[in-house]
Amino acid sequence: MSDHDKDDLEGVEAIPVYDRVTSRFEWRKRPVDVPEPPRWRTYGIEVSDENGNPMPFVANGMWVKNVPNT
């Protein structure tokens, strides 16, 4: 890799940008990298019988015990 491939402003928080309207340089913050969206989404599942009592259920082949909030 040559020296020309390196970014001299990589470690800096702001970069100088020339404004054509005011004919001056302004310091603008470097754009932040957009975080990657989560790959998994979690849902809260509550299973109850006709009386409202929590019941265990099967999720992804495993028995899950639905514990009531106390």
Description:
This protein has 70 residues and is mainly beta. 0% of the residues lie in helices and 26% in strands. It has strands at residues 14-19, 24-29, 57-59, 62-64. It has a two-stranded antiparallel sheet with strand order 1-2. The chain has a two-stranded antiparallel sheet with strand order 3-4. A hairpin with a 2-residue loop joins strand 3 (57-59) and strand 4. The model has no long low-confidence stretch (mean pLDDT 76).
Largest sheet: 2 strands, antiparallel
User: Which structural category fits the helices and strands?
Assistant: mainly beta
Gyration radius over CA: 27 Å
| Mean pLDDT over the residues | 76
Total beta-strand segments: 4
- N to C succession of SSEs: EEEE
Strand content: 25-35%
Summarize the structure.
The protein has 70 residues and is mainly beta. It contains no helices and 4 strands.
List the helices and strands and how they pair.
Elements: E1 14-19, E2 24-29, E3 57-59, E4 62-64
Antiparallel strand pairs: 1-2, 3-4
Primary descriptors:
70 residues; mainly beta; 4 strands; rod-shaped
